[in-house]
Design a protein that fits this description.
- The protein has helices at about 1-10, 15-30, 40-50, 110, 125-135; strands spanning about 70, 80.
- It contains five helices and two strands, in the order αααββαα.
- The chain has a two-stranded antiparallel ribbon.
- The relative contact order is 0.16.
- By secondary structure, the chain is mainly α.
Length: about 140
């Protein structure tokens, strides 16, 4: 809130009560349902890729929230907290700077950190589509 309201928008500092009210509101919003069923064939194939050690997604995106809550440099030059992938498709644009307008664009070398952010450069277009399908099922 401080970053957005004060730094980016030039507004005034908010009281602890207002910050808490906003947090209560935001965390009280229902989580949107996944747009793709977890048993969709592409999502199943994508889950297998996501969990494959050679792809490396679960090194950071693991657990109930599909995030280890640690911070890592994924090719940005700065350490950033690993976000949860639950309902990720509803949070476009993607990446720390919004460089990916779609989940698929996250895997472009110019935006997604290349193999510093998982090891996906060896995946085919069809496999990347499956990986995106899995993310849409979360």
């Amino acid at each position: 809130l401080e970053e957005v309201m004060v730094v980016r928008m030039g507004g005034s500092h908010q009281s602890p009560a207002r910050v808490q009210a906003l947090a209560d509101f935001m965390f009280g919003l229902p989580v949107p349902p996944p747009s793709l069923s977890a048993d969709d064939a592409a999502a199943v194939r994508g889950k297998a890729l996501f969990e494959a050690p050679e792809v490396g997604c679960t090194e950071c995106h693991a657990g109930a929230g599909i995030a280890n809550r640690e911070s890592h440099d994924v090719g940005t030059g700065q350490s950033l907290q690993v976000p949860s992938l639950r309902s990720i498709e509803y949070r476009a644009p993607f990446m720390h700077d919004g460089c990916a307008p779609t989940l698929r664009a996250r895997f472009d070398l110019a935006c997604g950190g290349g193999d510093q952010h998982g090891h996906t450069s060896q995946l085919s277009d069809a496999e990347l589509d499956d990986l995106v399908a899995y993310q849409r099922s979360l």
